[in-house]
Amino acid sequence: MPSPEKHCYQVHEFAQLSGVTVRALHHYDREGLLKPAARSAAGYRLYTDRDLVRLEQIVVLKFLGLSLREIRQVRQQPAPRSVVPMLLSRTRHRKSAWCSCPSEAPGRACVRN
Fold this sequence. Notes:
This protein has 113 residues and is mostly helical. It has one domain (9-97): Multidrug-efflux Transporter Regulator, Chain: A, Domain 2, CATH 1.10.1660. Helix content is 50%, strand content 6%. A three-stranded antiparallel β-sheet has the order 1-3-2. Strand 2 (38-39) and strand 3 form a beta hairpin.
Protein backbone atom coordinates (compact mmCIF):
# COMPACT_ATOMS: atom_id res chain seq x y z
CA MET A 1 0.00 0.00 0.00
CA PRO A 2 1.29 3.50 -0.76
CA SER A 3 2.67 5.63 2.03
CA PRO A 4 0.09 7.62 3.99
CA GLU A 5 1.35 11.01 2.73
CA LYS A 6 0.31 10.14 -0.83
CA HIS A 7 -3.26 10.88 -1.80
CA CYS A 8 -5.09 7.88 -3.20
CA TYR A 9 -7.94 8.12 -5.68
CA GLN A 10 -10.56 5.49 -6.29
CA VAL A 11 -11.04 4.61 -9.94
CA HIS A 12 -14.04 6.91 -10.49
CA GLU A 13 -12.19 9.87 -8.92
CA PHE A 14 -9.08 9.10 -10.94
CA ALA A 15 -11.14 8.88 -14.13
CA GLN A 16 -12.68 12.30 -13.47
CA LEU A 17 -9.31 13.81 -12.64
CA SER A 18 -7.62 12.42 -15.75
CA GLY A 19 -10.44 12.67 -18.29
CA VAL A 20 -10.14 8.96 -19.08
CA THR A 21 -13.09 6.62 -18.63
CA VAL A 22 -13.31 4.06 -15.85
CA ARG A 23 -13.65 1.42 -18.54
CA ALA A 24 -10.34 2.53 -20.13
CA LEU A 25 -8.61 2.45 -16.73
CA HIS A 26 -9.86 -1.10 -16.14
CA HIS A 27 -8.65 -2.06 -19.62
CA TYR A 28 -5.20 -0.54 -19.02
CA ASP A 29 -5.02 -2.49 -15.77
CA ARG A 30 -5.93 -5.78 -17.50
CA GLU A 31 -3.39 -5.07 -20.26
CA GLY A 32 -0.66 -4.32 -17.72
CA LEU A 33 -0.21 -0.74 -18.91
CA LEU A 34 -1.32 1.00 -15.73
CA LYS A 35 -1.64 -1.07 -12.61
CA PRO A 36 -3.14 0.76 -9.64
CA ALA A 37 -0.70 1.62 -6.85
CA ALA A 38 -2.78 -0.35 -4.37
CA ARG A 39 -6.12 -1.92 -3.61
CA SER A 40 -8.43 -0.97 -0.78
CA ALA A 41 -9.54 -3.51 1.82
CA ALA A 42 -12.70 -3.92 -0.27
CA GLY A 43 -10.64 -4.57 -3.41
CA TYR A 44 -11.14 -1.19 -5.10
CA ARG A 45 -8.34 0.11 -7.30
CA LEU A 46 -6.41 2.99 -5.73
CA TYR A 47 -4.34 5.36 -7.84
CA THR A 48 -1.79 8.00 -6.82
CA ASP A 49 -0.46 11.19 -8.38
CA ARG A 50 2.45 9.15 -9.72
CA ASP A 51 -0.06 6.96 -11.57
CA LEU A 52 -1.48 10.14 -13.10
CA VAL A 53 1.93 10.90 -14.64
CA ARG A 54 2.09 7.37 -16.07
CA LEU A 55 -1.42 7.72 -17.46
CA GLU A 56 -0.54 11.03 -19.11
CA GLN A 57 2.36 9.28 -20.86
CA ILE A 58 0.00 6.57 -22.10
CA VAL A 59 -2.55 9.11 -23.35
CA VAL A 60 0.10 11.13 -25.22
CA LEU A 61 1.59 8.04 -26.87
CA LYS A 62 -1.88 6.84 -27.82
CA PHE A 63 -2.65 10.27 -29.30
CA LEU A 64 0.56 10.04 -31.33
CA GLY A 65 -0.75 6.84 -32.89
CA LEU A 66 0.98 4.08 -30.97
CA SER A 67 -0.98 0.91 -30.29
CA LEU A 68 -1.37 -0.30 -26.71
CA ARG A 69 1.14 -3.06 -27.47
CA GLU A 70 3.67 -0.49 -28.70
CA ILE A 71 3.02 1.71 -25.67
CA ARG A 72 3.71 -1.24 -23.38
CA GLN A 73 6.99 -1.88 -25.22
CA VAL A 74 8.00 1.79 -24.98
CA ARG A 75 7.19 1.95 -21.29
CA GLN A 76 9.32 -1.14 -20.65
CA GLN A 77 12.37 0.50 -22.26
CA PRO A 78 14.90 2.00 -19.87
CA ALA A 79 15.47 5.03 -22.13
CA PRO A 80 12.37 6.91 -23.27
CA ARG A 81 14.36 8.33 -26.20
CA SER A 82 13.99 4.99 -27.93
CA VAL A 83 10.45 5.99 -28.86
CA VAL A 84 11.62 8.91 -31.02
CA PRO A 85 12.59 6.84 -34.11
CA MET A 86 9.25 5.01 -33.96
CA LEU A 87 7.32 8.28 -33.77
CA LEU A 88 9.31 9.82 -36.61
CA SER A 89 8.64 6.79 -38.76
CA ARG A 90 4.91 7.00 -38.03
CA THR A 91 4.85 10.71 -38.80
CA ARG A 92 6.57 10.18 -42.15
CA HIS A 93 4.15 7.38 -42.98
CA ARG A 94 1.15 9.55 -42.16
CA LYS A 95 2.48 12.46 -44.22
CA SER A 96 2.86 10.20 -47.23
CA ALA A 97 -0.78 9.16 -46.86
CA TRP A 98 -1.94 12.79 -47.07
CA CYS A 99 -2.57 14.39 -50.42
CA SER A 100 -0.51 17.26 -51.69
CA CYS A 101 -2.98 17.99 -54.48
CA PRO A 102 -3.42 21.73 -54.97
CA SER A 103 -7.17 21.24 -55.32
CA GLU A 104 -7.42 19.80 -51.80
CA ALA A 105 -7.32 21.89 -48.67
CA PRO A 106 -4.10 21.45 -46.64
CA GLY A 107 -4.31 18.74 -44.02
CA ARG A 108 -7.16 16.87 -45.67
CA ALA A 109 -6.86 13.37 -47.06
CA CYS A 110 -7.34 12.78 -50.77
CA VAL A 111 -10.36 10.88 -51.89
CA ARG A 112 -9.13 8.58 -54.64
CA ASN A 113 -11.42 6.54 -56.78
